[in-house]
Amino acid sequence: MRIGLLTDGGYPYAAGESRLWCDRLVRGLSQHEFDLFALSRSAEQETQGWVQLPAQVSRVRTAPLWTTDEDILGTHASKGLLARMVTGGGGRSYGRRERQRFTAYFTALATSVCTADATSGEGDAAGASGGAGSGGRSDDGRTGRTAVGVMDAQFTDGLYGLAELAREHGGLPAALRSETAVRVLEAACRAPGTGRTVQTATVPDFLAFARELDRALRPLSLDWYDEESLGAVDLCHATSGGAAALPGLLAKRFFGVPLLVTEHGVQLRAHYLAAADTTLSAPVRALLSNFHGRLATEVYRQAAIVTPGNTHTRRWQERCGAEREKLRTVHPGMESGRFTALGESGDSGPDDTLVWVGRIEPAKDLIALLHAFAEVRKAEPDARLRIIGAPAQGPEGATCLAHCRALAAQLFPDEATGAHAVGDNPVSFEDIGGAEVPDLSEAYAAGGVVVLSSVVEGFPISLVEAMFCGRATVSTDVGAVVEVIGGTGLVVPPRNPRALADACLALLRDPERRARLGAAARARALELFTVEQNLAAFRGIYLELISHAPVRREADTVNADGEPRPFATPPEAHVEGPWTASGPAPAGAVDRTLGWAAESRTVCAGARGAGGGDV
Fold first, then answer.
1. Which of 288-292, 344-348, 522-526 shows the highest mean pLDDT?
2. 474-478 long-range contacts, Cβ below 8 Å, gap at least 24?
């Protein structure tokens, strides 16, 4: 089958999220053909280029979400990244009818984003508090459910209306930045029933939100929505929610292509956290939170199957409206081969060394780890701590590393045996690739206990790697840590150096317990977190989804001589029944059922109606 893989800031770019996972998926499912539709997030990402793509990738389409309108017109339009000029499909501005359509669609979308929840009275509360609701969604009472349903319907009417307008006439980025859009936003924010924070928005806030909304809706203006692009694939697989799933929503809307959504971390939660760290005003943050909440709800509603990478992500998706029947937890697949030698050696590691492996950044809370190690040293004077990893990119990572080095020097002055001897600090900061730590496996071999001290964590990759190595672990209870560890490691509350120190001491002093936990951890990792189990899960999901839809391309139903290809279309495609997706066909979808099959269904339906029973 032909899979349209939708990515946002990742594969096939050399630097980006989910790059390794996507590459393993494409290479592992070599029996399928992949078309990549990739959104890029920065100029640096595009400059670093792509990874080497396997032969089963037949086509790559890319589009930037970071450029200005002028950059898109001058640099990328000639490459076919955008089909329409900002001024319109043929270089002309909107006429009266197009302006009326834009105003109607944008009013519906703006009203749904600005309107408060009927029961809570504050539609922007979810974004401000970090709740998982869809723009302040509440299910308390029939009135609340009715109001939420109306707002969701207005949002979808506006979203798909703008998409159809962009597809037919282009010009959407300019329209979203126009005076008309600002006036619509102002009217929506001032209308009765809007949230308190939204009501305080001023003209600069409307301009800022219009700019952010233009970037978020940039995928609507791409030239991917025709019979030769997304209309030619059998299945759309979005590797995250948000912007990556937008093309999948439109492919289902215009062509009836089924949509599969995979999230290893909840995109909506990432938007909430990112908004809190920006310089945007409170009204703009509230509006953005409401928009992304409504979008997440629509993505989960339209997806045929949603595959969270862990239970923590699954809970967020359920709170955002995802139906439990659609959810299938599929853990990320990781390469275990490079850790086989260490994992099968039976070595539980040195009795006096703790090791931390990862990317140095504030969320990893190495400050708490250093304070915990100070308590460990009081009980075990010979203990050592090896921090192995590079700082995160940007000034934040370098600042964090410098702070940690300074604290380590303060807590553990160099110890010397005499006045003329060279001191030795029990805490070391090392990079992978040096003489002592040549590779990742050696990093985990350096310690008897692997420690994870994070305060924020999605799927803990370093923890799984330590489990492959057969190492006992001490972790903080954040993100998917408990789900990953199971009962094979010690878990303590985050930001609690005393509890972290006690757990580390318990394992350092008991080599037999470390060996038992390490063996159990390796067995669990090999069962749940390998590339093989990940590929097997998606192989089954792909076949399940495609079995509920007829063959989509005429080229697959006929041979080189134009004769019908035997068994090219599954028999179920011509039989009405519960195996097909319920509900009416999507608006604008192309009916690709063969003519004789359509006639057959009509005859059968008539026979049932005349005879009063099944034929």
1. 522-526
2. 474/449, 474/450, 474/500, 474/503, 474/504, 474/507, 475/451, 476/365, 476/452, 476/500, 478/454
